[in-house]
């Protein structure tokens, strides 16, 4: 009986050993590329930040991978107003990267000094994974965030910044999620401290961040009022968020009166502001005690600068908006316990723990995967400057996305307000 038990134990150990070996082989196969990896890619870059047309499509080397990296064959890239600010030369982090190159552990793809590739978010297929990556396999559909460098057909990024594409979503929808969702979440929840029942005013509510903010308000049980620039956008937004109040903003001078005419006298607990100018000032005045206004953009001030820093049109459109920037007296905030916050998301790339925690909270509590983001227009990768110009025109709704290769054959026509 003793010999039989030993033999049985030996056979069992052998079986376990074979099973373990088989699992290792399968894991290696799953993480190995089926074809040679790309060594070059197409990249939209600028050597000078002088406007959208300073971007050039170039053939560049694919950055080397580390053990924690994933190589992604990009299928779609989400566009953001931050990209436009970068190529206009008004985004400090972009100016620094152009002059210094990408620092180590920056949360972005490698970039050499003297050339800048914009882009914060992308989606595509994992074609190779580093030895230390456990949760992503070759062939998996992923989307992610990068500290610039997403305007490429191949992106190498740390796995911590990537997530699997939700079932049933297109690459374009996945590329429309991270930057706008994180911006809305950080502004409304981390800084705005909104709770169930809070009254929230969202500027540019039909845009990418605005739609994400409206979705978060819906998920958290807040009362949202979305502000848009045309009747066409108002109808589009109302259909997507039927429970929300929608306001078509008029000229800056009359905006305060428009807010006061809203139900409840236009009083709010939180404002998410991307306009600036007198729209900011009127929104600040609409805050109730303990209210917070979160400022993350100034499209009114900078949106007209379509020609970079040169040309008469730039001075005629940019300077008036810049000079009308609101001034806030801290002494006026104290009696009513109001607060003003300003932020951008780039600083979070220095705090991976915070960025990934907020990303997972946004996807979970924020309900951002319950419904695919609204993609308002898609362009082929080859027409990326045209896509940026359309975004900068102010006519778009939802997210503007560029698609790569086969994905671009189903391009979605721009919205006509």
From TrEMBL:
Name of the protein: Enoyl reductase (ER) domain-containing protein
Pfam families in the record: ADH_N, ADH_zinc_N_2
Record-annotated Enoyl reductase (ER) domain positions: 50-402
Gene3D superfamilies: Medium-chain alcohol dehydrogenases, catalytic domain
SUPFAM superfamilies assigned: GroES-like (SSF50129), NAD(P)-binding Rossmann-fold domains (SSF51735)
GO molecular function terms noted in the UniProt entry: oxidoreductase activity
InterPro entries, A to Z: ADH-like_N, ER, GroES-like_sf, NAD(P)-bd_dom_sf, Zn-ADH-like_protein
């Amino acid at each position: 009986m003793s010999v039989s038990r030993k033999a049985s134990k030996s056979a069992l150990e052998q079986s376990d050993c074979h099973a373990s070996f088989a699992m290792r082989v399968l894991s290696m196969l799953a993480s190995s590329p089926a074809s040679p990896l790309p060594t070059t890619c197409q990249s939209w870059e600028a050597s000078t930040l002088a406007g959208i047309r300073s971007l050039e499509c170039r053939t560049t080397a694919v950055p080397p991978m580390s053990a924690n990296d994933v190589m992604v064959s990009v299928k779609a890239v989400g566009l953001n107003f931050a990209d436009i600010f970068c190529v206009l030369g008004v985004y400090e982090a972009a100016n620094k990267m152009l002059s210094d190159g990408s620092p180590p552990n920056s949360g972005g793809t490698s970039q050499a000094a003297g050339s800048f590739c914009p882009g914060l978010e992308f989606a595509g297929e994992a074609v190779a994974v580093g030895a230390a990556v456990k949760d992503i396999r070759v062939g998996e559909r992923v989307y992610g965030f990068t500290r610039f460098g997403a305007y490429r057909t191949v992106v190498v990024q740390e796995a911590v910044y990537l997530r699997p594409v939700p079932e049933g979503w297109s690459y374009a929808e996945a590329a429309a999620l991270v930057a706008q969702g994180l911006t809305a979440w950080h502004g409304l929840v981390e800084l705005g401290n909104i709770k169930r029942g809070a009254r929230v005013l969202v500027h540019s509510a039909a845009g990418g961040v605005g739609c994400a903010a409206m979705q978060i308000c819906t998920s958290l049980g807040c009362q949202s009022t979305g502000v848009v620039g045309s009747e066409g956008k108002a109808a589009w937004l109302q259909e997507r968020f039927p429970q929300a109040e929608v306001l078509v903003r008029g000229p800056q001078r009359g905006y305060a009166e428009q807010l006061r005419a809203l139900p409840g006298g236009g009083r709010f607990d939180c404002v998410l502001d991307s306009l600036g100018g007198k729209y900011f000032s009127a929104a600040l005045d609409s805050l109730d005690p303990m209210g917070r206004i979160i400022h993350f953009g100034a499209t009114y001030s900078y949106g007209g600068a379509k020609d970079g820093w040169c040309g008469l049109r730039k001075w005629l459109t940019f300077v008036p908006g810049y000079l009308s920037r609101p001034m806030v007296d801290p002494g006026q905030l104290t009696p009513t316990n109001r607060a003003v916050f300003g932020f951008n998301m780039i600083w979070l790339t220095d705090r991976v723990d915070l960025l990934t925690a907020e990303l997972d909270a946004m996807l979970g509590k924020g309900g951002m995967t319950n419904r695919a983001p609204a993609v308002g227009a898609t362009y082929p990768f080859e027409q990326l400057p045209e896509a940026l110009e359309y975004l900068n025109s102010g006519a778009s709704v939802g997210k503007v996305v560029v698609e790569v290769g086969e994905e671009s054959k189903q391009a979605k026509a721009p919205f006509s307000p």
